[in-house]
Design goal:
- This protein has 211 residues and is an alpha+beta fold.
- It is 50% helix and 26% strand.
- The chain has a 6-stranded mixed beta sheet.
Length: 211
């Protein structure tokens, strides 16, 4: 009986650990603005899985898992918009914003059921259309509004849990340079990620069998 009791306790502990892991969430912290390099952190429990700004040893190879996650989330495209020396490409705020919105919508459309499981804590967007030419700034403001407000409608329609997290500010400043800032804080339960991986693997197997 003692041996069976020990085995039962061990099994219960193992099951409890698995359940805790499955219901735990990956937390994502992402911020980007046109004046600094993007910041990205992905945490699980007490561990930091990805830290974009963490100094890396030159001899250490980049993490394949980290690179895959950044590529899947579209962050590599954002990072590549900044040069290695931190100099920004000469690209308008509206153009950069349109590119980011397009990447986000493509990612959510292809995995909409998974995107609906994401719990957004913060979805901040600050856009300032500026520059010395008031006419150009006004045109930029119009383009930005025509991009942002339909996007807000898309979020509120498809991602119900993002509505309360939205904090959008759009304005003009004819004395200073244009500015774009994004601040995202979200979390996603591990069990949903596993479901997505299983679904992807199943689709790949079906595609392979059809060939």
């Amino acid at each position: 009986m003692t041996v069976l009791a020990i085995i039962g306790i061990l099994l219960a502990v193992i099951i409890a650990i698995i359940v805790i892991l499955l219901i735990s969430s990956i937390r994502v912290f992402f911020s980007f603005n046109t004046q600094e390099r993007p910041e990205l952190k992905v945490k699980f429990l007490f561990f930091t899985v990805i830290d974009l700004n963490k100094p890396k040893k030159k001899s250490k190879k980049p993490s394949r898992i980290g690179s895959a996650i950044k590529r899947m989330l579209g962050f590599e495209q954002i990072i590549e918009s900044q040069t290695d020396e931190g100099e920004k490409q000469k690209e308008s705020v509206s153009s950069k914003l349109t590119g980011l919105v397009t990447v986000f919508m493509l990612l959510t459309d292809s995995n909409l059921w998974l995107a609906k499981k994401i719990k957004f804590k913060r979805l901040g967007l600050d856009v300032v259309c500026g520059g010395s030419d008031a006419a150009d700034a006004a045109i930029e403001y119009g383009v930005v509004c025509s991009t942002v407000y339909p996007f807000i409608g898309y979020l509120e329609t498809n991602l119900k849990n993002a509505e309360k997290a939205l904090n959008v500010n759009i304005g003009c400043d004819f004395e200073n340079e244009a500015y774009l800032g994004i601040d995202i804080k979200a979390k996603l339960c591990i069990i949903h990620i596993l479901r997505a991986l299983m679904r992807s693997a199943s689709e790949q197997m079906e595609a392979t069998n059809e060939q």
